[in-house]
Design a protein that fits this description.
mainly alpha, 266 residues, 12 helices
Length: 266
């Protein structure tokens, strides 16, 4: 099984209100003030926010500090202090690290996909040996693409070689695990089941659906990269579906919920 992790807020703890109360205590006097300040600074990490330029690798920290200071009225030094304080703030979530270790030990392949400025990405890779556990990963600043825009997901799908045709929402996958655990008490031999969406979705259809749901066009140069040797054009689909399991979350609803969760965690 291929498992793709986000980094901020998943592999690494990300608590912007805590960070701001530590770095700018005069402005972030309490939780409510910190939330308001985070909204002003980061603008919800929207694709058109100042910070998105940083995540895209299109602006250096000094220029970003001046840009945000001009917009918010904060001092340049105050914004620069926040920018500098983020890498040490990104402490590994030990529960997630333990999960990653278990998944890797069970033979699953790990990847990561993260919005991350180049300097932060370099620092995290230098500081944490578990990056060696990942078969590959995509940092936004290195590909000049950003979540939640669809192009970075296309890049990740192509680089990781994962099957994007049979999309299954994570909540439905968890349902399958629960059903499988319930079957253990009555199983004497070995059983193997598939958990996949019976509805095939091409990459073009996936991108078109994504753009329609989020209301943003996706600029992709189809055919811009050559096919890999032995490219899989039709995904494997001969597995027996786990008894009692079915897809409950459609593609459009899954994208909508993913978008809502991504904004809520920003």
């Amino acid at each position: 099984m291929n498992v793709v992790f986000d980094l901020g807020g998943v592999v690494f703890n990300w608590q912007p209100t805590v960070l701001l109360q530590q770095v700018l205590p005069r402005q972030a006097t309490d939780e409510a003030a910190a939330r308001q300040l985070a909204a002003r600074l980061f603008q919800g990490f929207a694709p058109d926010a100042d910070w998105a330029l940083f995540d895209l690798g299109q602006i250096e920290p000094g220029a970003l500090a001046h840009r945000i200071a001009l917009r918010t009225g904060l001092a340049v030094a105050e914004v620069a202090a926040v920018i500098s304080a983020i890498p040490p703030h990104l402490v590994p979530n030990q529960a997630t690290v333990a999960l990653m270790q278990d998944l890797r030990g069970a033979g699953h392949t790990l990847y990561y996909l993260s919005n991350m400025p180049a300097a932060y990405a370099d620092e995290l890779e230098r500081s944490h040996a578990f990056f060696d556990w990942f078969a590959d990963g995509v940092f936004s600043a290195r590909v000049h693409q950003i979540k939640p825009n669809a192009d970075i997901f296309v890049t990740a799908t192509q680089r990781f070689g994962v099957d994007g045709a049979h999309t299954v929402f994570i909540d439905d996958v968890l349902d399958a695990y629960e059903l499988a655990l319930q079957r253990l008490s009555g199983v004497t031999g070995h059983e193997c089941y598939a958990v996949s969406n019976p509805v095939w979705v091409s990459l073009r259809e996936l991108v078109r659906t994504y753009a329609e749901v989020v209301g943003r066009p996706v600029d992709i140069e189809w055919g811009g990269l050559p096919y890999r040797p032995r490219e899989v054009m039709e995904p494997w689909s001969d597995g027996t579906t786990l008894p009692g399991w079915q897809v409950r979350t459609g593609l459009e609803e899954g994208i909508r919920r993913m978008e809502q969760d991504d904004r809520a965690s920003s």
